[in-house]
Amino acid sequence: MSVKIPDFRQTPTIDQVSVEERVARFNTRSIKKESKLQGLKLALNMIDLTTLEGKDTEGKVRQMCYKAMHLCDELPGLPTVAAVCVYPNHVKTAKAALEGSSVKVASVATAFPSGNSTLDVKIQDTRFAVENGADEIDMVISRGEFLKGNYNFVFDEIADIKEACGNARLKVILETGELSTLDNIRRASDIAMYAGADFIKTSTGKISPAATMPVTLVMLQAIKDYHYKTGRMVGMKPAGGISTAKGALQYLVMLNETLGSKWMNNEWFRFGASSLANDILLQLGKEANGGVYYSKDYISID
């Protein structure tokens, strides 16, 4: 179907008080017993394990890939994570290490995390990652251009990167901590989706605040409205700052009640929170061992 591009200067305004009230209600939900176990395993399967440091080596990437496939061999029946996320120069290493598994390889691109470079460089960065085997590309928007009101520039850049992705899925990082207001976050979400994003993502993890529940709720509502208007599903990835199993379950409640069961899988929802995996593993270990926690020494830090 033909999709009409809206005037991004006319996007909906956000009632912050209403958003915070809804989030407060999500935070009161309590999930127990078998539902809790299912929720924790689902959250685990939605995680993108990430290493995006200047000190990254091939060995560190291979270690992370091994963990992605073997989260805790002491606990049978665990899923893998959804993906690992690395810089473009480590995509080939990750792809080889994950061969034969269902774990995807994601790569940041487009001058991550600042996004301050030319379009030519960003396209080359994206193509390099895809040519080396990336299944997914995580790009950052040009926040400076967005904050100047150059919405068409941001739209066109996302569309160009989407084309460069080929068959790889595109996650568009808004870096919500730099957008200042919920109105801006809603507008940036709409721009990204209409430009072709397969996912919208809160943060790079390099800026504070990163993912928060109010910000995520605004982005989920934007996805809901976009789906209603176009029929196209778009995924969501809150990234950074989500570190506890309890918090992950609250995000899943919010996801289910806002977008519904179709989005309750790792094709359409991800957590960008490597430390979250360890807390979920500790909680699952506790449930499996009659209320006794595993020592953290049983779980790798990276």
Descriptive keywords:
single chain; 302 residues; alpha/beta; TIM Barrel; seven-stranded parallel sheet; 11 helices; 45% helix
Task: Give structural notes.
The chain has helices at about 15-25, 35-45, 60-70, 90-95, 120-130, 145, 150-165, 180-195, 215-230, 245-260, 275-290; strands at about 50, 85, 105-110, 135-140, 170-175, 200, 235. It has about 300 residues and is of the alpha/beta class. The protein has one domain (about 15-290): TIM Barrel (Alpha-Beta Barrel). The chain has a seven-stranded parallel beta sheet. Helix 8 (about 180-195) links the parallel strand 5 and strand 6 (about 200). The longest helix has 18 residues, at about 215-230. The chain is globular, with a radius of gyration of 19 Å.
Shape: globular
Q: Low-confidence spans: pLDDT under 50, at least 5 residues?
A: none
What proportion of the residues is helical, as a percent range? Answer: 40-55%
- Strand fraction equals 5-15%
Mean pLDDT score, rounded?
Answer: 93
Nearest-angstrom radius of gyration? 19 Å
- Structural class, from secondary structure content? alpha/beta
Overall number of strands = 7
CATH superfamily: Aldolase class I
Just give the CATH class. Answer: Alpha Beta
Largest sheet: 7 strands, parallel
CATH architecture: Alpha-Beta Barrel
**Element-level helix/strand string:** HHEHEHEHEHHEHEHEHH
Q: Helical segment tally?
A: 11
CATH topology, what is it called? TIM Barrel
Number of domains: 1
Strand order of the largest sheet: 1-2-3-4-5-6-7
Q: Span from first to last CA?
A: 44 Å
